[in-house]
Design a protein that fits this description.
With 202 residues, the protein is of the alpha/beta class. It folds into 2 domains: 9-118 and 187-201, Rossmann fold, CATH 3.40.50; 120-178, no CATH class. It is built from 8 helices and 4 strands; from the N terminus they run βαβαβαβααααα. The protein is globular and about 50 Å long.
């Protein structure tokens, strides 16, 4: 049985990497009163999101933030989440990255934000695009992508290359966030900060 929801503010994310990233990010912007749950990846949203809604304590939720990767199509990802919510009689805002006026108020943020495609790794990389380490990362990634057998996901490869150059080992973007390696003060995160500022004020 899932743990009961113990906060009036609930966040649903894809996986553990996202949990670790958002715990670090929300701590940085001063948000502490929330319950965060993973749904086990984008392919699990259709099954796990309705289950989360039935979890003990959900009836007391006043603000519900759902975070998903855009992957190849931000609008398609947004519509997919909204359709799942409709099937359990919940209303999200008609606009991504904004909250509805329903009860609970629901917002769906599609990462990396303000983009047609991408994922958490893309968002992280945007925050360090001017970091000195990227002068080493970019040529390295360009080199490996020319190999006959190269990584299938360029963003994940690039993020891992950046983390490999950090002072202490961080083998995931979530752990990298916990260690403070991503630029949480970057202007690239303004959209996300605004989203969670609205979340905290609900």
């Amino acid at each position: 049985m899932p743990e009961p929801i113990r906060s009036h503010k609930l966040i649903a994310v894809e996986g553990n990497d996202e949990i670790q990233f958002f715990k670090a990010f929300l701590r940085h912007i001063g948000c502490t009163d929330y319950d965060i749950r993973e749904v086990g990846g984008k392919d699990q949203f259709k099954r796990k999101l309705p289950a989360l809604v039935k979890t003990t304590g959900f009836s007391g939720v006043e603000a519900f933030a759902i975070i998903r990767d855009a992957d190849k199509d931000a609008l398609s990802s947004f519509d997919s989440v909204r359709n799942i919510l409709r099937n359990v009689e919940l209303d999200a805002s008609d606009e991504m990255n904004k909250f509805s006026k329903s009860k609970p108020s629901i917002g769906v943020y599609i990462m990396p934000g303000n983009s047609k495609e991408g994922m958490l790794e893309d968002l992280c990389l945007k925050t360090v695009k001017d970091h000195p380490t990227m002068k080493c990362v970019d040529p390295f990634v360009q080199c490996i992508m020319e190999l006959d057998e190269h990584p299938h996901n360029l963003s994940k490869a690039k993020a891992q290359a950046f983390l490999a150059a950090m002072p202490e080992i961080a083998n995931s973007v979530g752990l990298g966030a916990q260690k403070g390696y991503w630029g949480f003060d970057s202007p690239e995160l303004e959209s996300l900060k605004k989203f969670f500022k609205n979340f905290m004020e609900l």
